[in-house]
Amino acid sequence: xxxxxxxxxGSVQVGGSLRLSCVASVDTIGRYCMGWFRQAPGKERxxxxxxxxxxxxxxxxxxxxxxxxxxDSAKNTFYLKANNLNPxxxxxxxxxxxxxxxxxxxxxxxxxxxxxxxxxxxxxx
Length: 125
Fold this sequence. Notes:
Elements: E1 4-7, E2 10-12, E3 18-24, E4 33-39, E5 46-51, E6 57-59, E7 67-72, E8 77-82, E9 91-98, E10 115-116, E11 120-124
Parallel strand pairs: 2-11
Antiparallel strand pairs: 1-3, 3-8, 4-5, 4-9, 5-6, 7-8, 9-10, 9-11
């Protein structure tokens, strides 16, 4: 059973930055697809950023150029660095892990991720 524990959320002013962390209880995080999702009140959960096992990264359009996903295999931890935050980024952020970033057609997909953390709140005001 994979456990994911997020940290690093909090309240930040507009234009500020945060770094979210997710520690994964897997053998080697480099074997998995790792991602960050968020859900704002009254909205559906959406994918934010992901990093595939062989390195490619994927970003939701509204965060491109502002958010960066990375991983530290030695610590079994992956991160989301969020810069230039704005109120639309306010949400509960979840880390997730899946054996693969691709769907059955071989394309990247935000759907059907298997393992999830409990989430960490980010509030921008």
